[in-house]
Design brief:
Layout lengths: L16 H5 L4 E6 H5 L5 H7 L3 H4 L7 E9 L6 E6 L2 E2 L8 E5 L2 H7 L4 H4 L5 H17 L12 H5 L5 E4 L8 E4 L12 E5 L18 H6 L8 H12 L4 E3 L1 H4 L5 H8 L2 H6 L3 E5 L21 E6 L5 E8 L3 H4 L10 H9 L2 E6 L2 E6 L3 E3 L2 E3 L1 H4 L8 H9 L5 H18 L14 H8 L6 E2 L2 E2 L3 H4 L3 E2 L10 E4 L20 E2 L1 H8 L11 E2 L2 E2 L19 E14 L6 E6 L5 E3 L4 E8 L9 E8 L3 E11 L3 E11 L6 H12 L3 E6 L1
Parallel strand pairs: 8-9, 8-10, 10-13, 20-27, 30-31
Antiparallel strand pairs: 1-2, 2-3, 3-4, 3-5, 5-12, 6-7, 6-9, 11-12, 13-14, 14-15, 15-16, 17-18, 19-21, 22-28, 23-24, 24-25, 24-28, 24-31, 25-26, 27-30, 28-29, 29-30
Organism: Lophiotrema nucula
Protein name: Heterokaryon incompatibility protein-domain-containing protein
Pfam family, one: HET
Length: about 675
């Protein structure tokens, strides 16, 4: 049975608050023997147990002076240990914060009041957040304006059409409509709010409509707004910013035209903002921004201590917030589809969790006194953030279109499609700002979630929920059902998350997915015109995909001895070629009422390192109109003899490039 340590040991029993807060600190021990022979308490262990020079120093360094001091930092007071005047740190940047439970004593000794540390809306935490923002503005190149080649007017006017003027504390707020010809729109600094609307939406008295617009331009009653809006207004003022953009107030909610116009410039609204305020832990607009920190009690220690004149107080010790303690579960905002583009396009984000504040910009992350590496931040924030957004837009040298396409398919869309969205009709608008920004840097048409360049790869997506690790395509017997949604070829039409298996296939075979020379595209996009109007990113503008590619046939036959259906390559000359030795993955959809040897159509899309990817099709209209059914891939039986290889080559050679339409 483990014996609990005493609250204080013989070294700490005479500790006073005056001594801890003095420049000289509190003397802990004068020799190694004195330290090692004491019945160490939690405070001593917390300060010294990582220091090998205290526990087992060289003989020449047995005489030491150990002391403990409470010192200020920009994130609050910290307790530090010194050995012979030198700061002891077992890991750079890791410190222990100390607070006092009583407000009066905390103010008298200039020690952080515990409630200030544990409330994200306290002056301590807001000033810390402001210092991060100002440091970024002064030292980084994160705030350069986004440009839109398709919207020259918006480029000249970097400020959104409407903003909420918040002014200073106690000043009346109102909605400002900027003149479309006003040149001073370039000079306005504003914050943006990223938040969850919640299942019940935003209250009517917090929405701008044709009816409320005239009223809101005269003034808005802050007390009638949801808590998240009120907290965001308060924070914006305390950050020294006079304007705030909130979607429900700055876009007329009863005007489809206004929604399409303003929605098409979201990449500019967020990209040109000074900072985005993210209400990460609020499920709806009443959840609030400022929350008491949800601190795990096992991470802190308490110590009862007295002042020199006998007043008692309680010191609380908090270790530096490790990333895993900030967000053990995906926060509410992180599950929301709309929030992805708001984060990717923003130059700076202040994330307000119920376990702390995190600052993110296009160059670094901050949490308390730590600057975290990106790999650590993935423990609580997805890697699709401000830094990802900058890399996506600027891109590397070389084949930039391929690189950006890889980011879109391999990272962005799988993340986005896994998030919650209330209406399927919002799937394009909720990612439109990223698509619009990306379109400025690739010579390709945007086709309802995929890109016209290398379109064979773009069409090779699969349902993530149906992912299987079989060594052969899985046959799915599906009873007759309504036809697939339209357009059937776009992942946007479906309610499940998607991924592109070609990337994992290439990585498994040891190839870098950056190597465009390894992969091959077998489909051409015939209609190469490139729409330039912003609406193309907000809605399905192209429902029929005119392509040129290779249509092949296959049949399903019982496997030898196991009763399972396997593929037989059906050639145009009427012959069948055995492919029982092939392997691969994906799924093939068949009707339980169809004949096992019925012929099925497939479109050769692309080739990875060694696998060939096919789109299973269903012909809906003669001669060449098809709908998407499923995706599967095959890998040639290169170790199964020359005959099998010839069967494969003969099947592929039996196909010619032909025109087809996907609906």
């Amino acid at each position: 049975m483990e014996i609990p340590r005493p609250e204080t040991c013989c070294l700490c029993k005479d500790m006073t608050l005056e001594a801890l807060c003095s420049p000289d600190g509190y003397r802990n021990a004068m020799s190694v023997e004195e330290f090692q022979e004491s019945d160490l308490c939690d405070i001593c262990v917390g300060m010294w147990w990582r220091s090998r020079y205290v526990w087992n120093p060289p003989d020449s360094q047995r005489q030491v002076q150990l002391k403990v001091i409470i010192e200020p930092s920009r994130a609050g007071t910290v307790v530090r240990a010194y050995r012979d005047g030198k700061l002891q740190q077992y890991k750079p940047g890791r410190v222990t914060y100390v607070t006092i439970a009583g407000r009066d004593i905390a103010d008298e000794f200039h020690v952080t009041w515990d409630e200030d540390r544990l409330y994200t809306g306290s002056d301590l935490n807001v000033e810390l957040a402001k210092s991060w923002m100002l440091e970024c503005q002064q030292r980084h190149d994160c705030g350069s304006a986004q440009e839109d080649k398709n919207n020259e007017t918006m480029n000249r006017q970097c400020t959104p059409r409407r903003l909420v003027y918040v002014g200073t504390i106690n000043e009346h707020i109102r909605l400002i409509e900027f003149d479309s010809n006003a040149l001073d729109r370039q000079q306005v600094s504003y914050a943006t709010l990223s938040h969850c609307w919640g299942p019940n939406g935003i209250p009517d008295n917090a929405k701008t409509t044709d009816l409320t617009l005239p009223e809101y331009t005269k003034g808005i009653d802050v007390t009638q707004l949801p808590r998240t809006f009120r907290d965001a207004i308060d924070l914006t003022r305390r950050l020294g910013i006079e304007y705030l953009w909130i979607d429900a107030l700055c876009i007329r909610q009863d005007s489809k035209l206004d929604w399409e116009t303003e929605g098409s410039t979201m990449h500019l609204v967020y990209g040109n903002s000074t900072v985005t305020i993210a209400a990460e832990s609020s499920e709806d607009s009443n959840g609030g921004l400022f929350l008491p920190l949800n601190v795990n009690p096992s991470y802190n220690k308490k110590l009862s201590i007295s002042t020199a004149n006998g007043r008692s107080c309680c010191l609380l010790f908090y270790p530096t917030r490790y990333p895993k303690t900030v967000n053990s579960e995906t926060p509410a905002l992180g599950k929301r589809a709309w929030a992805l583009q708001e984060r990717v396009m923003s130059p700076r984000i202040l994330h307000f969790f119920d376990k702390g504040i995190i600052f993110e910009c296009r160059e670094q992350y901050n949490i308390q006194d730590e600057k975290l590496e990106e790999r650590q931040c993935r423990l609580y924030l997805s890697d699709t953030g401000a830094q990802f957004g900058r890399a996506l837009i600027t891109g590397p040298t070389g084949n930039v279109s391929w690189w950006r396409f890889k980011q879109w398919c391999n990272i962005l869309v799988p993340n986005y499609s896994s998030r919650k969205i209330t209406f399927r009709s919002d799937k394009l608008p909720a990612i439109s700002s990223i698509a619009s920004a990306l379109s400025q840097h690739v010579d390709a048409s945007y086709l309802s979630g995929i890109w016209s360049n290398d379109i064979g790869f773009g069409l090779a997506w699969q349902n993530l929920n149906a992912r299987n690790y079989s060594a052969y395509p899985t046959v799915e017997k599906v009873a007759p059902a309504p036809p697939p949604p339209r357009p059937s070829w776009s992942w946007v039409s479906y309610d499940f998350p998607v991924y592109w298996p070609i990337w994992s296939e290439m990585a498994k075979d040891g190839w870098s997915i950056d190597d465009h020379t390894v992969a091959r595209n077998f489909v051409e996009y015939k209609h190469g015109e490139r729409p330039t109007h912003p609406k193309q990113f907000m809605s399905v503008e192209i429902r029929r995909l005119h392509l040129r590619g290779r249509i092949l046939m296959f049949s399903l036959v019982p496997g030898s001895g196991n009763g399972k259906l396997t593929m037989a390559l059906q050639c145009r000359d009427g012959s069948f070629r055995d492919c029982s030795h092939f392997y691969g993955g994906g799924s093939i959809t068949v009707s339980p009422y169809s004949s096992p040897d019925s012929g099925y159509y497939c479109l050769l899309l692309c080739k990875g390192a060694s696998a060939w990817f096919f789109l299973q099709l269903n012909r809906v209209e003669l001669p060449n109109i098809y709908e998407r059914m499923n995706l599967f891939w095959l890998q040639g039986p290169w170790n199964q003899g020359l005959k099998s290889t010839k069967n494969w080559d003969y099947w592929l050679d039996q196909s010619d490039m032909e025109d087809l339409v996907l609906v």
